[in-house]
Amino acid sequence: MGLKTEELLIDEGKTECVVLSAKEAEDKYIAAVHTKNHIDLIKSISSKKFDSRRERIAAKYNSIYFNEGSSEAAYLAAGSVLEVAEKVAKGELDSAFAIVRPPGHHAEENEPMGFCLHNNVAVATSFLLNKRELGIKKILIVDWDVHHGNGTQKMFWKDPRVLFFSVHRYDFGTFYPASEDGSHIMIGKGPGAGYNINVPWESGRCGDADYIAAWDHVLIPVAKEFSPDIIMISAGFDAAVGDPLGGCRITPYGYSVMLKKLMEFAEGKIVMALEGGYNLDSIANSVLACVEVLVEEKPLSGSSEAYPFESTWRVIQAVREKLSPFWPILKFELSKKLTDGKAPPIQISCSDSDGENDICANIVSEDLEKAVQDILQPFSELRVGINSNDEVSTVSAPWRLELSKIDVWYATFGSNMCKSRFLCYIQGGQVEGMRKACAGSLDKSPPKEILWKTVPHRLFFGRDQTKTWGPGGVAFLHPESNSQNRAYMCLYRITLEQFNDVLLQENVSRFDLSSPVFDLTDLDSIMEKGKPVEVLERGWYRNVVHLGNESGIPILTMTCTLSDVESFKSGLHPLCAPAKEYADTLVRGLVGGNQFSEEEAMAYILEASTNPL
Questions:
Q1: How far is 170 from 162, CA to CA, in rounded Å?
Q2: Is 388 helix (H, G, I), strand (E, B) or coil?
Q3: Which residue numbers delimit the Histone deacetylase domain (predicted)?
Q4: CB 253 within 8 A of CB 207
Q5: pLDDT at residue 13 above 70?
Q6: What is this structure's pTM?
Q7: Which helix (H) or strand (E) holds 490?
Q8: pLDDT at 305 over 60
Q9: CB within 8 A of 134, min separation 6: which ones?
């Protein structure tokens, strides 16, 4: 990857560039941001004694691959970024670009992650700050990789010397690394409060206009106030046009504009370190555009007449509002004339791709290593295949046949109380108010029975945005019972196979269909022990709760975890009343199920959304 980029720079005659050999980082510098256990793991993973265990060890981590060259590569990558950062700080180089692999921004203090072994930019940043003779007191880190720089964020979470800025696909917390870390409400802590800035795109397809808007209305005003001594850029190019994974559309011109704006700070002392990117041509062309800016070889050529998406302005406004107590320059509301200049709303579906390099905007990359080859197929396409006699045949995993014979009651408390809305999870499609369609289940048979019950659990509304409904909170059920509470539930009798498909659609957008997430062992356990089962690592409704039995059939629901409830109580996760479209769907379900009149249903929702937890 680095070789192709270097070849392009040579072909373009970049004689102003000095090519340096890679140099391994010393453990003492890596130890400033990583634990001893982490260092020992990365140092030894390529030794022969790990030959038989290397794959098993990698499997313990999130999207990590090890081989016999991993240790050396990790040390060379971290050392190369550190070395050029020191040279730029000393004035020996005006600027630098470290074309390294593996990348680093996902690596956390004690955990490799997302192809990243050592956090290269964090190692170099810490080195510059700790070497006092360099005179570096404030560092701006800009992470424009399409994925959130979770590792870098955590390493400088409380450090006011580092202003960390990450612009990334977030997709309401479902895009890799699929955690709350990338939310705009994550602003740092203690003395570092206000020095962590996340600009989380709601979906893919963002391009030059969107990123430049984030620069002009968030990053640049704050950077002026912060006045960094040097700038480190986690330069991933998986948001580039043509990248098969990122789903965004930044052109080489767009990257050059973003970088040119940053050249106005720190006397142009900029160190770029390669992060992600999965299309060699996209990487090479984008790097070339950036290097031309760094050497100030020629004026920028190109233009962009596109407008930012409506969602872009919404995100920028939210970021500015959250950070305005720390950066008064952001207190001013953007003019309506400015925000009215916007592209049409993004239609999030699996059929709106304009070309082979676009990825559905609602796809979650839980495992980067598999994502390029393993993109979601709609359930309807998995049902049938063609055999050698041109006959239609059923294609499904063995577990499906087993679970299709087991019935459960799926107890719903939110929009799924409306039957037409619930059937979207079974048969596919969407109803009024929904912003994206559901894929549907493999078995599209309607529920065998429908009935209503009340349970002694607390209904409440939380979060403030969803991909399906847009702004506004959605319903959650407190996983613990309380005799003083009462929630209305619509129960659908469906198969355990269908329950698994609904569970996946509620929590993730990319499915591993090779095995169920809630199998017969889980069902036996939850019924025997009476304790909820957290079936997925991520997802708002990953906690399956057993609510008893009806006619000998178990009643199951899916909701948040107890730790999520505590996050709602503390304010880490927002409590938020539902938007009108979502609330109207709940009302239709409650009225259609003969539980309430329309006025009573609205009062029930109002009470649930206003009473404190």
A1: 22
A2: coil
A3: 15-294
A4: no
A5: no
A6: 0.62
A7: strand 487-495
A8: no
A9: 86, 89, 90, 128
390, pLDDT greater than 50? no
Tracing tokens 């990348």 back to the chain, one arrives at: 103
| Beta strand residue intervals within 397-464, DSSP E | 407-412, 450-455, 457-462
Computed over every residue of the chain, the mean pLDDT equals 87
For 592, the 3-state DSSP assignment is helix
- DSSP string across 140-172: EEEE-SSS--HHHHHHTTT-TTEEEEEEEE-GG
pLDDT band at residue 168 using 50, 70 and 90 as cut-offs? very high
Distance CA 369, CA 170 (A): 19
Candidates 106, 148, 168, 478; catalytic one: 106
User: Which tokens in the block code for residue 429?
Assistant: 């499609």
444 burial type by CB count under 10 A (0-12 exposed, 13-18 middle, 19+ buried): middle
Give the pLDDT confidence of 197-214 residue by residue, as tens digits: 999 999 888 999 999 999
pLDDT of residue 512: 54
Describe the crossing of helices 120-130 and 70-90 by its angle, rounded to 10 degrees: 40
106 flagged as catalytic: yes
Angle at 596 between CA 591 and CA 601, to 5 degrees: 85
Preceding amide of 328 cis, omega within 30: no
Cα angle 434, 437, 440 (rounded to 5 degrees) comes to: 130
Q: Which of 519, 503, 499, 520 is closest to 511 using CA atoms?
A: 503
Asked if residue 168 lies in contact with residue 143, where contact means CB atoms within 8 angstroms, the answer is yes
Give 224-257 as a 3 state SS string: HHHCCCEEEEEECCCCECCCCCCCCEECHHHHHH
Spatial distance between the Cα atoms of 595 and 610, rounded to a whole number of angstroms: 21
pLDDT over 70 at 362, yes or no: no
- Helical axes 496-507 vs 419-427, angle rounded to 10°: 100
Exposed/middle/buried for 156, CB within 10 Å: 0-12, 13-18, 19+? buried
119-144: buried (b, 16+ CB within 10 Å) or exposed (e) per residue? bbbbbbbbbbbeeeebebebbbbbbb
Output the pLDDT for position 1. 43
Dihedral sign of CA atoms 307, 313, 316, 321 in order: positive
pLDDT category at 14 given cuts 50, 70, 90 is low
- The token pair that represents 424 in the structure block: 């979207």
Instruction: Scan for tokens 């289940």, then name that residue.
Output: 441
How far apart (Å, rounded) are the C-alpha atoms in residues 605 and 583? 7
Q: What are the tokens at 167? A: 């612009």
Q: Bridge partners of 481? A: 457
Q: In sequence order, what are the residues at sequence separation of 6 or more whose Cβ sits closer than 8 angstroms to the Cβ of residue 209?
A: 304, 306, 307, 308, 312, 343
Which secondary structure element, helix H or strand E, spans residue 536, and what is its range?
none
Residue 427's φ and ψ, nearest 5 degrees, are: -105, -5
Cα separation, 246 vs 516, in Å, equals 27
Within 13 Å, how many C-alpha atoms sit on residue 402's CB side? 9
Report the percentage of the chain scoring pLDDT > 90: 71
Owner of token pair 């939110």:
414
Residue with tokens 């040279």, as numbered in its chain: 87
Q: Which of 216-225, 341-350, 352-361 has the lowest average pLDDT?
A: 352-361
Answer for the pair 430, 437: CB distance below 8 angstroms, yes or no. yes
